[in-house]
Design brief:
Shape: elongated
Strand order of the largest sheet: 1-2
Helix content: 40-55%
Number of strands: 2
Structural class: mainly alpha
Order of helices and strands: EEHHHHHH
Number of helices: 6
Largest sheet: 2 strands, antiparallel
Strand content: under 5%
Number of domains: 1
Distance between the termini: 63 Å
């Protein structure tokens, strides 16, 4: 299909929008699986949204420890931004070196475990939550507790796990 003698497929404008659409699809996929990935990192009980999602998270338990991303939604939001930001860097790195959209998307997907563990561990270190990938890893490795409390008595009121959509902000979650 030619317009004015040039193909739309090779238009720089169309290529940029196509790259954005492909990366947004990768980011959306990450978003869909972010809650079950929270459970992998924090051993908290979160599930995929079609399997009950955050309703199974330990943040709803009467006794702590509570999932750090659900106890402090702003922290979960920062971890999500760090994860998707790392994927964006991988996508752009391949794209700027002449990689196709498919290879760029594959690089972003392949970067997910690395960016998730990096941003997840950075957020986890700020809390006193005991589990990260392995149960009781904080005490096993002698890692000091961070300043944000996750080991609390009582369920979090109005918990909106792993979404970062709380109006309470980072570290100011309402406690009963």
């Amino acid at each position: 299909m030619a317009v004015g003698g040039s193909s739309l497929v090779y238009s720089p404008y169309v290529r940029k929008w196509a790259a954005l659409a492909v990366f947004l699809a990768v980011a959306a996929g990450t978003g869909v699986f972010f809650t079950p990935l929270c459970a992998v990192l924090h051993r908290c009980g979160c599930r995929a949204s079609w399997d009950g999602g955050e309703s199974h998270c330990n943040v709803h338990d009467a006794q702590g420890p509570h999932c750090p991303w659900c106890e402090h939604p702003g922290l979960g939001g920062l971890a999500a931004a760090g994860t998707i930001g790392g994927q964006a860097m991988a996508f752009l790195w391949v794209r700027r070196r002449g990689g196709s959209l498919g290879r760029s998307a594959l690089a972003a997907v392949a970067a997910l475990p690395f960016t998730l563990v990096a941003s997840g561990s950075a957020a986890w270190l700020l809390t006193d939550y005991p589990h990260f990938l392995v149960r009781d890893v904080r005490s096993r490795l002698g890692i000091p507790k961070g300043p944000l409390r996750c080991v609390v008595a009582g369920p979090r009121v109005g918990a909106s796990c792993c979404s970062g959509a709380s109006s309470t902000g980072l570290g100011s979650a309402a406690k009963p």
